[in-house]
TrEMBL record:
Keyword RNA-binding attributed: yes
Sequence similarity: Belongs to the dus family.
Organism per entry: Atelocyanobacterium thalassa (isolate ALOHA)
Protein name in the entry: tRNA-dihydrouridine(20/20a) synthase
Cofactor(s) essential for the protein: FMN
Any GO molecular function: flavin adenine dinucleotide binding
Catalytic activity field: 5,6-dihydrouridine(20a) in tRNA + NAD(+) = uridine(20a) in tRNA + NADH + H(+); 5,6-dihydrouridine(20) in tRNA + NAD(+) = uridine(20) in tRNA + NADH + H(+); 5,6-dihydrouridine(20a) in tRNA + NADP(+) = uridine(20a) in tRNA + NADPH + H(+); 5,6-dihydrouridine(20) in tRNA + NADP(+) = uridine(20) in tRNA + NADPH + H(+)
Pfam families tied to this protein: Dus (PF01207)
Active site: 96 (proton donor)
Keywords in alphabetical order: Flavoprotein, FMN, NADP, Nucleotide-binding, Oxidoreductase, RNA-binding, tRNA processing, tRNA-binding
Lineage: Bacteria, Bacillati, Cyanobacteriota, Cyanophyceae, Oscillatoriophycideae
Enzyme class (EC, first level): oxidoreductase
SUPFAM superfamilies: FMN-linked oxidoreductases
InterPro entries, A to Z: Aldolase_TIM, DUS-like_FMN-bd, DUS_fam, DusA, tRNA_hU_synthase_CS
Length: 324
């Protein structure tokens, strides 16, 4: 396996999942994997409650802010804000196919406008010292041939982007839901491998359909890095050995119980500040996947996390449901 100082493993940005509480939880499992925020629109960063949208714990780093937008100057302003806030990277979303995102003319539909994406990257990179990266599909609709993908990467890379995260499926902008676009279009890993051959000076990261460590190891023979999606949310303990196996860390992986122990003070802090326990515990539900008692753990957590005033005792009580 590679032993690279770069972040060659990451957890994808996922709406309603990769918030700061999930990221803190995952950081108890892996210290080195690059984490992403949920996608945040550039106009929201520009005009909204920046603390609510952007705050994070230093324990979550390394951390990338993913932005959605299409105006180069607004995106450049947001990149400056992200750098000042302490983010390690800014990622531009050119992969989301949802109607809401398309109506805002950003996300996957911008694959049809590589020059605009390039100008956005150029203005962002001119404004900050942290890396500007792009996450995109292998194509959209009928424009899904390799030469079009290669053209997109070439034009955008010439503007200063050195890292491309490629979802190895095309996106249908009409007729498929975002969920269907994550599953129905066939995976074409070879297209991503070909990008690395054609652009050896770029960092090429692969995303889509990767569900275990053996697949990660396989992909790393052909490209630089791997992004995990929903498997990291639905089975987070899959990441328990990645620091040891991929980053050559000498630290012993924590047990599931030790992970919960580590997160209890964090839960107490937020509970004391009026946060509903559910905002944190919803991310913990799948920690004991495959362990006897996991259904009871999930049920107890779910039934006892919505009440105001609940604290870490609910989690401790839920642990008694696990039959280790």
């Amino acid at each position: 396996m590679k032993n690279n100082k770069e972040n060659f493993l990451s957890v994808a940005p996922m709406m309603d999942r990769t918030d700061r509480h999930f990221r803190y939880f995952i950081r108890q499992i892996t210290k080195h994997t690059l984490l992403y925020t949920e996608m945040i629109s550039a106009t929201a960063v520009q005009n909204g409650n920046k603390s609510k949208l952007l705050d994070f714990s230093s324990d979550e780093k390394p951390l990338s802010l993913q932005l959605g937008g299409n105006d180069p100057y607004t995106l450049a302003e947001c990149a400056i804000i992200a750098e000042d806030w302490g983010y390690d990277e800014v990622n531009l979303n050119i992969g989301c196919p949802s109607d809401r995102v398309q109506n805002g003319r950003f996300g996957a539909c911008l694959m049809a406008e590589p020059e605009l994406v390039a100008k956005s990257v150029e203005k962002m990179q001119e404004s900050v010292d942290i890396p500007i990266t792009v996450k995109h599909r292998i194509g959209i609709d009928e424009c899904d041939d390799y030469e079009s993908l290669k053209y997109f990467v070439r034009i955008v890379s010439e503007s200063g982007c050195k890292k491309f995260i490629v979802h190895a499926r095309k996106a249908w902008l009409q007729g498929l839901s975002p969920k269907e676009n994550r599953n129905i279009p066939p995976l074409r890993y070879q297209d991503v491998y070909s990008l690395k051959k054609d652009f050896p000076h770029l960092t090429i990261e692969i995303n889509g359909g990767i569900t275990n460590l053996e697949q990660i190891s396989h992909h790393l023979q052909f490209i630089d890095s791997v992004m995990l999606g929903r498997i990291a949310y639905n089975n987070p303990y899959l990441l328990a050995t990645v620091d040891k196996d991929f980053y050559k860390s000498s630290t012993t992986p924590l047990t599931r119980y030790q992970i919960i122990e580590n997160i209890l003070p964090y839960v107490e802090y937020w509970a004391s500040h009026g946060l509903k326990l559910h905002s944190i515990t919803r991310h913990l539900l799948s920690l004991f996947i495959g362990i006897s008692g996991t259904k009871e753990w999930k049920r107890y957590i779910t039934e006892n996390s919505h009440f105001i005033g609940q604290d870490s005792k609910a989690i401790i009580n839920a642990l008694s449901k696990i039959k280790s």
